[in-house]
């Protein structure tokens, strides 16, 4: 455990010593802020409209602002994840520092968990920026807090799973760009898998839809905590970390 | 301290190390010598548990690299060919990270960081980014990280590669200073380095062990008869090469005289004596009595370079025993 924290701290330091962390935060703040603005603007316009019509319009902030914002943040996350994980092992392999890690009295598992944990922490701190956006809503209205918390938990779980996949792909190459591109491809596929259900209802379509990130995130965005979806993300995380461990091991044999 | 038995490492298509056995005693500095691609780095990587051997066993400080890698890693300091530095870290940060990674903490960590910084002369760059350091400093920081946990065994892969002569000298001194506390294996393809820093030498070529002995013994064993370099200078008139050569060859106990070069009227010869004969006195007298000046007379010690070439040539050609090929024949 101590070793995990040593590795994790080192990774966080290098994220924040380079422009990576700040760049990703700025990128995310701009896009998430834009989505938040659009969702709020539509909500306000609808509110005005319903008042002018004299009809009572069900005005639920959670449903009209927060849910679409969370769905959008989940998609932006797909773009952030490759940029967070691509350097984790690829960079160590390129610069040879992997030799230091591999010859230190530290288990592979500790290295992997430490790195992955750092990625999750960075991802969570980026997400926190959109929490600031949503906090603004509390100044002017009374949104329901619980669904928001569930939504963020969902975002975190989704991130944890996909970051594990990214960590694995980063062990396969010395080239950060390749690691990043592959991770992005996987993230994108896991996102669009669910589209197939629009025109097909075969078993394959169901399987693909089940594998899709969107299918499982939707209920979190609604504020519904379903163990089935949580288990999906946790399984992805374990699977990714397991593959990382196997990949590191084979690296030693092939070296 | 280190026992290697029947170590073999095969990659997909090549055999990098082929059935090597050797052992290193505690406190020794051992030179691991071989041309590029001989299998030095591979052997070192096995000893540091970076990769497992295909066959054979290696024990470091009493622990098997396959069975108890964590115990081995605790007792080994490793400096790879390129120092494993994180460019975005400051020197202090880096040492602290490596120290923690090796299991140090608290006041112990602080103490060791100070000690190794002092020892490797990097106290003046503590706050600098590793990416801003010169090659010499990078190497020293690399060495500092290798010794931070005070390991029993130090494994250094080409520690002086890419340094300028002054830095090479400093690094060698540093390594020599570390001996005693640590058992050191250093690899190199530069022969004078082994002559200057190491006590024992292990020579490998194409993955095979060629020779293992103390530097002194090896030089001695291969020399057999003594070889002298003699330079004769003119006194009364120009020198005749054939005349001088004849004179030298006529001395009792001289088995071979070979002309080497003429320079400013002086002539240089290589004189080989019969085994066990000392001819220096007779040689000097003969030259002076002939009316010439003796400008220089010293033992032309065989450099490791020649030994190395001989050993590897023998190995490459017919697989004759290296010792049988000995002598400056």
Explained architecture:
The complex is a heterodimer of chains A (255) and B (329). With 255 residues, chain A is mainly α. Chain A has one domain (2-254). Chain A contains 11 helices and no strands. The longest helix of chain A is centred in the first third of the chain and has 35 residues, at 19-53. In chain A, 39% of the residues are buried. With 329 residues, chain B is an alpha/beta fold. Chain B has 2 domains: 2-214, 3-Layer(aba) Sandwich (Rossmann fold), CATH 3.40.50; 221-299, MTH889-like domain (Alpha-Beta Plaits, 2-Layer Sandwich). Chain B is 35% helix and 28% strand. In chain B, the strands form 3 sheets. Chain B has a 6-stranded mixed β-sheet, with helices on both faces. A 4-stranded antiparallel β-sheet of chain B has the order 2-1-4-5. In chain B, α3 (91-101) packs across α4 and α4 crosses α5 (135-147). The chains are: A mainly alpha (255), B alpha/beta (329).
List keywords for this structure.
heterodimer, A: 255 residues, mainly alpha, 83% helix, globular, B: 329 residues, alpha/beta, Rossmann fold, Alpha-Beta Plaits, six-stranded mixed beta sheet, four-stranded antiparallel beta sheet, 35% helix, elongated, disordered C terminus
Q: Report helical residue fraction of chain B.
A: 25-40%
Q: In terms of structural class, how would the helical and strand content of chain B be classed?
A: alpha/beta
Main-sheet strand order of chain B equals 6-7-8-3-9-10
End-to-end gap of chain A? 27 Å
Strand content of chain A: under 5%
List the secondary-structure elements of chain A in sequence, H or E: HHHHHHHHHHH
Which whole number gives the mean pLDDT of chain A?
Answer: 90
List the helices and strands and how they pair.
The complex is a heterodimer of chains A (255) and B (329).
Chain A lengths: L1 H16 L1 H35 L7 H25 L1 H9 L2 H5 L5 H33 L4 H26 L5 H17 L10 H9 L1 H9 L5 H28 L1
Helix pairs in contact in A: 1-6, 2-3, 2-6, 3-6, 3-7, 3-8, 3-10, 6-7, 6-11, 7-8, 7-10, 7-11, 10-11
Chain B lengths: L1 E9 L4 E10 L4 E5 L6 H8 L7 E6 L2 E2 L4 H6 L1 E4 L11 H11 L4 H14 L15 H13 L5 E5 L7 H14 L4 E6 L2 H7 L2 E6 L2 E7 H9 L3 E7 L7 H10 L3 E10 L2 E8 L6 H10 L3 E7 L4 H14 L12
Parallel strand pairs in B: 3-8, 3-9, 6-7, 7-8
Antiparallel strand pairs in B: 1-2, 1-4, 4-5, 9-10, 11-13, 11-14, 12-13
């Amino acid at each position: 455990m101590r070793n995990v924290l040593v590795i994790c701290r080192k990774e966080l330091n290098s994220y924040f010593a380079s422009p990576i962390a700040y760049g990703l935060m700025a990128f995310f703040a701009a896009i998430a802020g834009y989505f938040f603005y659009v969702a709020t603007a539509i909500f306000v316009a609808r509110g005005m409209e319903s008042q002018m019509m004299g009809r009572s319009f069900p005005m639920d902030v959670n449903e009209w602002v927060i849910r679409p914002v969370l769905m959008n943040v989940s998609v932006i996350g797909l773009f952030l994840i490759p940029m967070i994980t691509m350097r984790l092992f690829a960079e160590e392999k390129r610069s040879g520092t992997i030799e230091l890690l591999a010859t230190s009295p530290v288990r592979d598992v500790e290295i992997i968990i430490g790195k992955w944990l750092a990625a999750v922490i960075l991802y969570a701190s980026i997400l926190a920026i959109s929490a600031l956006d949503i906090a603004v809503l509390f100044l002017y209205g009374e949104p329901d807090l619980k669904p928001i918390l569930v939504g963020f938990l969902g975002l975190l779980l989704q991130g944890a799973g996909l970051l594990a996949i990214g960590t694995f792909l980063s062990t396969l190459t010395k080239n950060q760009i390749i690691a990043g591109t592959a991770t992005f491809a996987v993230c994108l596929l896991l996102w669009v898998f669910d589209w197939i259900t629009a025109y097909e209802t075969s078993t394959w379509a169901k399987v693909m839809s089940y594998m899709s990130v969107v299918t499982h995130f939707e209920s979190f965005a609604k504020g519904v905590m379903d163990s089935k979806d949580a288990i999906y993300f946790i399984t992805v995380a374990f699977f990714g970390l397991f593959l990382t461990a196997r990949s590191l091991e084979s690296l030693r044999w092939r070296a | 301290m280190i026992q290697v038995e029947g170590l073999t490492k095969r990659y997909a298509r090549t055999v990098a190390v082929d059935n090597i056995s050797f052992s290193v005693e505690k406190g020794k500095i051992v030179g691991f010598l071989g041309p590029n691609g001989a299998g030095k780095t591979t052997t070192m990587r096995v000893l540091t548990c970076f990769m497992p051997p295909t066959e054979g066993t290696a024990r470091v400080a009493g622990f098997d690299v396959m069975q108890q890698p964590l115990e081995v890693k605790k007792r080994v300091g490793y400096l790879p060919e390129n120092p494993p530095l994180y460019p975005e870290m400051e020197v202090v940060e880096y040492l602290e990270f490596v120290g923690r990674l090796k299991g140090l903490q608290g006041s112990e960590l602080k103490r060791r960081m100070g000690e190794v910084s002092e020892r490797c002369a990097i106290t003046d760059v503590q706050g600098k980014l590793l990416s801003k350091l010169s090659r010499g400093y990078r190497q020293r920081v690399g060495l500092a990280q290798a010794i931070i946990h005070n390991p029993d065994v130090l494994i250094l892969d080409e520690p002086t590669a890419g340094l300028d002569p002054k830095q090479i000298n400093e690094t060698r001194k540093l390594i020599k200073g570390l001996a005693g506390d640590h058992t050191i294996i250093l690899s190199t393809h530069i022969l004078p380095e082994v002559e200057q820093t190491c006590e024992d030498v292990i020579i490998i070529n194409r993955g095979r062990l060629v020779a293992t002995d103390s530097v002194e013994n090896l030089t001695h064993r291969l020399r057999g008869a003594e070889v002298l370099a003699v330079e004769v200078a003119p006194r009364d008139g120009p020198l005749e090469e054939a005349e001088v050569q004849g004179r030298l060859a006529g001395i009792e106990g001289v088995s071979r005289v070979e002309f080497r070069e003429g320079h400013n009227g002086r002539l240089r010869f290589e004189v080989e004596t019969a085994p066990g004969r000392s001819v220096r006195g007779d040689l000097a007298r003969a030259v002076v009595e002939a009316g010439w000046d003796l400008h220089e007379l010293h033992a032309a010690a065989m450099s490791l370079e020649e030994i190395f070439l001989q050993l590897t040539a023998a190995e490459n050609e017919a697989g004759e025993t290296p010792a049988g090929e000995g002598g400056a024949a």
